[in-house]
Write a structure and sequence with these properties.
Number of helices of chain B: 9
Largest sheet of chain B: 8 strands, parallel
Number of domains of chain B: 1
Radius of gyration of chain B: 17 Å
Structural class of chain A: mainly alpha
Largest sheet of chain A: none
CATH topology of chain B: TIM Barrel
CATH class of chain B: Alpha Beta
Helix content of chain A: 40-55%
Number of helices of chain A: 3
Oligomer: heterodimer
Order of helices and strands of chain A: HHH
Strand content of chain A: under 5%
CATH architecture of chain B: Alpha-Beta Barrel
Number of strands of chain A: 0
Shape of chain B: globular
Chain lengths: ~100, ~270
Amino acid sequence: MPVPPSAAKTFDREFLMIRSRLLDLAAALDRIERAEGPIADHARFESIHRSLEALASAGPDRAERIQLLFSLPYDENWRTPSGELTERRSSEGGKKG
Amino acid sequence: MYFFDPHIHIAARTTDDLAAMARAGCVAVGEPAFWMGYDRRSVGSFYDYFRQLTEWEPKRAADYGIRHYAWLGINAKEAENVSFAREVIAVLPEFLDRPDALGIGEVGLHKCTKNEVTTLLGLIELAMQRGEQLLFHTPHLEDKYKGTRMILDLLRADRRVDHSRVCVDHCEEHTIRHVLDEGYWAGITLYPTTKATPERAADLVEIYGQERVLVNSSADWGPSDPLAVPAFIQVMRRRGHGESQIRRLVYENPLRFFNQSCRFTFHAPEHS
């Protein structure tokens, strides 16, 4: 790996991209605000708000923390001693397999 | 720079894509069996698809100087019907014996159901019986973390599994550490909106190193980019990574991983 660049150099490189993406984000939230009727999926909307809080917090692991905010919980005891699933919860949403 | 795209669905791409990839330096691809956008209704449909992956797509790719390798399996989205999946698994050995078959993949979990797990265990069993390499698909979006951890639990419980011959694909910020910590190869998929962007993939390499990391486009019939690996190369260059480090990620690492398949042969273009 190369010598890590300075924070100042990294900030200069990323500034316009961060600005652009923040504006995209703000505009998308404004679009939702202007739209008619309630939001059906409150859990997802809540995840977005908690992600914004994580974004504003300190630390080098914001991306990982935001990923986990959008993740279903993992139960390490999901298999019984006989190997059966203890939980069959599945979420909706059709994506590619 | 020469590169491999170790995970791409060529069957869903045009010859224009193959030409563009070749011009960008692509010399080899790995094509895992996956979901075609609809559920297949018979074993015959899978049989024909496996023929496409092992007979027709290698010829199409060869026209552009690209070596084509295939992974065979039944994907998680079509794994819910366990008895049907068993019928598909029964035809796999015929195709796994073909010269450019790398192993069993992409297989894994989608919604993490009991039936998906049952089918996956059948596929792992076949791999262990035959000494095949494994390529795992991990779920999308909110299911990814849970599904990845479940796949790792299943693999850890089987002492026959050689971790260095397994790639767990579509890793992101919240899953890659778990995969690498257990000695598996970690695949990073470059997608425009889901999975990882080239910039985030470069971040993961800078944080977790390049030792057992593969970078792929997973380009298919959905929003995806067959030139995503060259885009990643550009990002790495812009950040000051050396050519030898980048080459290791996009050429030497997939070569090392593929080379563990007993059927794998490859002639480096600089030696041709």
